[in-house]
Inverse folding.
């Protein structure tokens, strides 16, 4: 007898998501963009819960890009405040659901109050053993690669690394994502077909799934549909 979600197995170990469409969702309803971001935060809760239920090990969410700092000051301030509220409000649920929170990006660019709340949640959830939720904040794929090169150079200059040792695996150890496996599946909402400077190094062999759904409308069933589509792909990794 089959069990619920048997058709989702094997579960992708790591899913990455570009959460696009909050602003358009709000505009379609005659609402301020900030309301779209609030609705998007509810979707984050649904997706995190679903990933935990079906056994995803890692979930990386593109929460705030390095380019997002160019948005109007009022919107950026609202996003930072929403991030603080989200972290503070979701911590009890993360503890209940055994979620471990992590973050990647140039986190020092965040307001100090956001940094404090983020570090508090990371520390509080550090012993949890379920889903690892990775928030990409003030993150850019090109910036990550540049920071990785700088890290390599520091290691060479400090005498800790011979440049002859540099290869793909070694370079990966100097990226923000060095503690996590590369994504198996990348999901982007709102129908846009581009990476937008997200995980440029890590998605070399990742399967992409694009949906027209705007992020606030993305449901648990939409996530499962994406995983079912993932299972239709033949991942050759350069082979035959």
């Amino acid at each position: 007898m089959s069990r619920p979600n048997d058709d989702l197995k094997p579960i992708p170990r790591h899913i990455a998501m570009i959460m696009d469409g909050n602003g358009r969702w709000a505009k379609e309803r005659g609402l301020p963009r900030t309301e779209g971001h609030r609705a998007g935060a509810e979707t984050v809760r649904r997706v995190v819960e679903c990933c935990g239920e079906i056994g995803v090990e890692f979930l990386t969410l593109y929460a705030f890009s390095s380019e997002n700092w160019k948005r109007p000051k009022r919107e950026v301030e609202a996003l930072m405040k929403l991030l603080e509220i989200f972290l503070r409000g979701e911590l009890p649920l993360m503890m209940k659901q055994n979620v471990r929170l992590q973050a990647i990006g140039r986190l020092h660019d965040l307001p100090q109050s956001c940094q404090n709340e983020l570090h508090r949640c990371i520390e509080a959830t550090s012993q949890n053993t379920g889903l690892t939720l990775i928030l990409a904040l003030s993150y850019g794929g090109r910036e990550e690669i540049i920071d990785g090169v700088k890290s390599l150079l520091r290691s060479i200059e400090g005498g800790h690394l011979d440049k002859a040792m540099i290869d793909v695996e070694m370079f990966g150890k100097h990226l923000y994502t060095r503690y996590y496996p590369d994504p198996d599946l990348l999901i982007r909402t709102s129908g846009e077909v581009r990476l937008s400077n997200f995980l440029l190094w890590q998605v070399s062999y990742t399967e992409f799934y694009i949906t027209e759904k705007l992020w606030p409308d993305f449901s648990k069933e939409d996530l499962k549909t994406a995983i079912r589509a993932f299972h239709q792909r033949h991942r050759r990794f350069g082979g035959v």
The longest strand covers residues 58-65. Residues 16 and 186 are 5 Å apart (CA to CA). Strands lie at 14-18, 58-65, 100-104, 132-139, 185-188, 207-210.
